[in-house]
Amino acid sequence: MLLGMSVWFAASASVPAIQKEWGLSAAAAAWLTLAVQLGFVAGTLASALGNLPDVLSARHLFAGSAALAAAVNAAFALWARGPVAGIVLRFLTGFFLAGVYPPGMKILATWFRRGRGMALGILVGALTLGKASPYLVNAVGSREWRPNVLFLSFFALAGGGIVLFFVKDGPYALPRAPFDFGQVRRVFQNRGVRLANFGYFGHMWELYAMWTWAPVMVRASLAARGSSPALAETAAFVVIGAGAAGCVAAGLLADRIGRTVVTSWAMGISGACCLTIGLFSSGSEALLLAVAAIWGASVVADSAQFSACATELGDPKYMGTALTIQTCVGFLLTMGSAGSPRERCVCRGPGATMRSFSPRLILPPGASSSSTDSTRSPRRRRDAFRSPSRRTREPSHFPKEAGGSRASERIRGRGGPSPSRTGRGSSRKSSRPG
Fold first, then answer.
1. For the chain, what is the domain count?
2. Can you give 330-394 as a three-state secondary structure string?
3. Within a domain: 300
4. Is there a contact between 296 and 242 (Cβ–Cβ < 8 Å)?
5. Which one has a higher pLDDT value, 139 or 340?
6. Percent of the chain having pLDDT more than 90?
7. Mean pLDDT of the 242-267 span
8. Which of 110, 162, 226, 239 is least enclosed by beta carbons within 10 angstroms?
9. For residue 339, what pLDDT is reported?
């Protein structure tokens, strides 16, 4: 997983150099990242509709997809000369990576019944290091972006080869399941899986916005202090890579004290870091990076536990389909949270960058890790899922395009106070930036 997913941020890590070479605007450059996520959504949707992780051998699907992602990434490094070709190739990279991530989780789950949270935590930790690896390659590799991107293709190819030749299905693997289109509907009918998915969706809203724009923040802040570019790339790797330690620690704790407690604490810590990191942008460099590293460790710590819930609460014969649907919808939501900010948010000083960036990462109202607690009674589970919406208030600067206002209106309609009752609706509308 570490090697197979290394090409995800291959272009994102090199955006400054690509932007300069191709003369891209900030919005056009952002599509080099968004295209990967959109391709991943398309790939997971096709995979889920065809039950591919359950109908085909997960190992062969992983290896073949990793090889194709490596080939497309190499084509981007060697032949892309403008935004059109670049965005198409990045889309295809994400499309093929859809055959790497969910099948990888399924393969690992077949080895564990007890301790599955820790096992998936280690796997997601490896994925986190893999996605951070392009920044490390930039720090120690060539000053030209094309050799660095090409080098990452060898990582992905090696990852597919390792899974194909050295990894076997676990003792709890089930025979290949027949194609069943109805499994897509049954995933959403399963209450436990559905609640776990809601928690995962809120987690994904923050995660990829942080992973996409935290390196931008770090680069801007360190550049303003006169630090070397190599230090900025290394710092970006550490900030994202810290999530590996968070995933492993969360997995160990979740198997002992429960997934609900761990995911709730992880989301609380990451949310606090999101809201406060802008306050440290003009202060101590060490303090800024320390808060960013804590954010990086906590923002992904809950990811594996939501996936573990999907494997434990769903139909074991179609475990791969459940995981694929979960990731498909989760990554679709990231298109709103990780989208391009206005150019003024990244072109001013580091203080402006941090403060403009942080509000975009607030979780959608109603998203809470408590939704994973499927061991409670139906009444308590329903209250646990709804109660955060009563406490959550939509900030006046929440971006319209992220869909936050519509989501909050639906949740408030189920029991929360409406803007008209509180008298805040008009003030929110007037205070939203144009």
1. 1
2. HHHHHHHHCCCCCCHHHHCCHHHHHHHHHHHHCCCCCCCHHHHCCCCCHHHHHHHHHHHHHHCCC
3. yes
4. yes
5. 139
6. 42
7. 93
8. 226
9. 60
Please give the C-alpha separations between residue 231 and each of 140, 201, 347, in angstroms, as whole numbers: 10, 33, 20
pLDDT for the residue numbered 226: 83
The pLDDT confidence band at residue 106, using thresholds 50, 70 and 90, is confident
Whether 146 maps to a domain, the answer reads: yes
Domain that holds residue 79: 12-169+182-402
Q: Identify the pLDDT of residue 114.
A: 82
Read off the pLDDT band of 20 (50, 70, 90). very high
What is the C-alpha to C-alpha distance for residues 56 and 249, in angstroms, rounded to an integer? 33
Which tokens go with 222?
């360190």
Taking residue 350's Cβ as centre, other Cβ atoms within 10 Å add up to 21
In a domain, 331, yes or no: yes
Per the rule left: phi > 0, alpha: psi between -120 and 50, beta: everything else, 245 is: alpha
Q: Which residues contact 429 (CB under 8 A, 6 or more apart)?
A: none
d(CA 185, CA 181): 8
Q: Measure CA 152 to chain center.
A: 20
Task: Name the residue among 185, 204, 206 with its Cα closest to residue 196.
Answer: 204
> Is the CB of residue 40 less than 8 Å from the CB of residue 331?
yes
CATH of the domain at 282: 1.20.1250.20
